[in-house]
Amino acid sequence: MNTELKKELEEVREEIERLEKKDNDASMSALYLSQLYYRICPIDWDYSCEATLIKGIHHGPDIAQRINVDSSQHSRCFVGDYLWSLVPTTW
Amino acid sequence: MAQTKDDNELEILEKEIKDFRTTFKTACCSEPIEQTLGLRDLWLESISNLSDKWSKRLKEGDLMINRFQEYTNELLQKNKSIEEKQENLSEVLASIKDGEKQNADLMNSIQELKERLVRKSETKSQDTEEKLERLSKVEKTFKERTGLEIRKTCANHLQFIFRCIDHKDPDKPYVLTLSINEAGAYEVISCSPSLDCIEELQLKVRETNNFSAFIANIRKAFIALSYK
Predict the structure, then answer these.
(1) Do A33 and A76 fall into the same domain?
(2) Which of A22, A71, B93, B201 is the most exposed place for a label (fewest CB within 10 A)?
(3) Which residue windows are coiled coil (chain A) (predicted)?
(4) Chain B nearest CA to A36, separation (Å)
C-alpha cells in the first residue's frame, strides 16, 4: 500500500508540475513575444482611446514621441510606414 | 612285657587322640567352616546381586541426569529463541506502526496536494488566462499596426513576417527566418525574397547587437526591393 500511495503522491506532484509548467510556458511565450516586439519597436500603446485611433508613446533612443494617428483616414501601409519611421535604422 | 603294654597304651592313646581330633575337627571345625563358607557364598551372591542392581540403577541415574541436562539445554535454547522472536515481533510491530503512520502521512500529503491542484486549476488558469489575454492584445496591436508578425517555428527559429511592404499588395508576406547559433550569435536561416545586403546586415547586428536597427533595416531593404 505504501508503494501505491507513494506512486499516487508522485503522480499528483507531476500533475501540479505539468500544470505549472504549462501555465508558465504559455505565459513565457506570450511575454517573450511582447518583449521582442517592444525591443524592436518600443511603443507604449494607449488602449483607452477609440478603436480607430492609434495613440501611444514611442520611446526612441533620444526622445519619446507621442503617436496620434487616425487609422480610418490612412491606409495600413501608411500607418505601418509611419510607425517604422520612428525606429532608427542607424547602428 | 611292660614295654609292650606301654606300646599298646600309646597306640590306643594315639588312636583316641586321632579319633578325638577327628571328632573335634568334625564337630567344631568342619561344620562351622562349611556353614561359614556357605554363608560367605550366600553373602557374595547377595553382594553380587546388589552390585548388579545398583550398577544398573546407577546407569539409569546417569541416563536420567543426561536426559535432564539435555532437556535443560533444550529449554534454555527454546527460551532464548522465544526471547529473540519476541524481540523480532516487537520490531515488526514497531515497523508496522511506522508503516501505518507513513501511510497516514502519505494520504494526508496526497489530499493536500489534490486540494492544491484543484485550487491551482481554478485560480491559476484564470490568472494565466487574464495574463495571456493582455499579452495577446499587445501582440495583436503590434502586428496590426506595424504589419510585423513574429512566429516561432518547429525548428525553434524565429520568423519575422513583414506585411504592408508592397503598397500594391499589402498582404504579401516578406519573411526573414532567424536563429541564434551555438556561439550565441544571430544567424539568418532564410530570407524570402532574398536580399543582397543580408550578409552585411547579419554582420552589423552581430557587431552592434542593435536588433531594432537590424529589423528596421531588413524592412527598409524589403521595401526597396518591392519598388524594383
Answers:
(1) no
(2) B93
(3) 2-29
(4) 9
> Is A23 close to B128, i.e. CB distance below 8 A?
yes
Segment B57-92, tens digit of pLDDT: 999 999 999 999 999 999 999 999 999 999 999 999
Same domain, A61 and A90: yes
Cα(B36)–Cα(A22) distance, integer angstroms? 125
Residue B158 pairs in a beta bridge with: B152, B178
Handedness of CA B147, B152, B154, B155 (dihedral sign): positive
A13 and A29 in a single domain? The answer is yes
Assess contact for B153 and B177: CB atoms under 8 A.
Answer: yes
Q: Where are the alpha helices (DSSP H) in B28-150?
A: 31-146
The reported pTM is: 0.61
Query: What is the C-alpha to C-alpha distance for residues B14 and A90, in angstroms, rounded to an integer?
Result: 183
**Prediction ipTM score:** 0.82
